[in-house]
Predict the 3D structure of the following.
Amino acid sequence: MNLGMFVRPALLAAVALFAGQSALAQDAPVAAAPDLKYSNKWRIEVKEGANNDGVARFRVTPRGEAAIEVTVNVKDGRSENGVAQDVKKAFSTALDRKRFKVEGDDFEDVLVKSKSPADFSLELVESTLKGTHFDLERE
């Protein structure tokens, strides 16, 4: 018995199945992006310290450009001010220093500013931190 006689039809069927799924995916409507709020300056207020090791993921989206993901790793027991320092360091590392200025304010706040009049949005995408909360404010 020729093994190719069974394998070839199975492979062709698999290819047809995947091609059909791809065609369906192309016809599916694209979900609209959420209504983003823009400003040239944002304040990230850190509320409370961290009660666990966790991650906070932010998204910075310059108007008309691709989003920039900013991931903040936080250790259990970090104070409110310590979490703000972690946020400041992560944003300073992830964002182009020619376009953005990141600075601390009042020890528990972080300011993210555009160095040009260009606006950008700032979103908290996810946080696995227990106890720590973030308020994002346009300025």
Notes: Residues 4-27 form the longest helix (24 residues). The first strand starts at residue 41 and ends at 47.
